[in-house]
Amino acid sequence: MVAVAWEKYLHSYKLYPTPFKSLIVIMEEEIMRLFENGVIMEQVFEADEDAYDGMNVHIKESMDSNHFVAMLRSSISQWTKQRKRGVWIKLPIEHADLVNAAVKEGFWYHHAEPTYLMLVYWISQTPHTIPANASHRVGIGALVINHTGEVLVVQEKNGTFRGTGVWKLPTGVVDEGEDICDAAVREVHEEAGIKAEFIELLAFRQSHKSFFGKSDLFFICMLKPLSYEIHKQDSEIDGAQWMAMEEYAAQPFVKKHEMFNKIAEICLAKKENKYSGFSEVLMTSGFSAKRSYLYFNQKQFTLPEN
């Protein structure tokens, strides 16, 4: 039928007046782009192939759902023949109208960010090996000890500690792309206006089913203050002060809860130089030239010189 339609089109071209033939030529060029050997070429999405035989599609242009589904089916058909294993579609928020169509074709949600939704599809007949979304949130607590042995503590206006009267270490969440050591320095400056430098990672805690059902990693970091005058963050902090370490550790809330009590004991031991933590060393890995931090106890282990 395609061949017959093509022949009718070529025949009708001769019937048009000359002024219209230039328009017909343009139409002919467009149709020729879609035809090859008398068959319409199926459109497929441009995609980047990853190291695991997956195809990564970035939707950049608007299209109606019918066109989207047609291209999706053609693409998956081609990638199936090429023995690809999975498909990732990064769908910007401005194209959210295509989500329903993708889900009906067998895609499922992988993760979402403020500006896009990531959808996935498994082509292979084997059980899928698509990695799960990020499983952990990362937070820090900062132990800042001044030259007189006092510790920086705050009282929060919001959250679990609001209205409890408990003095606690400055805490916060590590931002995307931010190192643990830098997050600790930033949080201390934001909450108390104290400039500080990272010294050591003292301990860390892992918990599960905490924030939106995700696991949580919390790192206790020791910092050295570079300034001492407190300027608290009025929007989130009700109070901030330097407090004797022993007074902080003796609070009923701290003594009552095993985890808080153990952290306080570690802090006291560190103050008395009876505890050594992990300091950061910037280095490259075998997979990338990008440098990242390795945390380890340098006092008990010395790296060989290159």
UniProtKB/TrEMBL annotation:
Gene Ontology molecular function, alphabetical: ADP-ribose diphosphatase activity; metal ion binding; NAD binding; NADH pyrophosphatase activity
Keyword Ligase: no
Keywords: Hydrolase, Metal-binding
Any Pfam family matching the protein: Nudix_hydro
Keyword Metal-binding part of the UniProt annotation: yes
PROSITE patterns in UniProt: NUDIX, NUDIX_BOX
Domain Nudix hydrolase as annotated: residue spans: 135-267
PANTHER family: NUDIX HYDROLASE 5-RELATED, NUDIX HYDROLASE RELATED
Family to which the UniProt record says this protein belongs: Belongs to the Nudix hydrolase family.
Name of the featured protein: Nudix hydrolase domain-containing protein
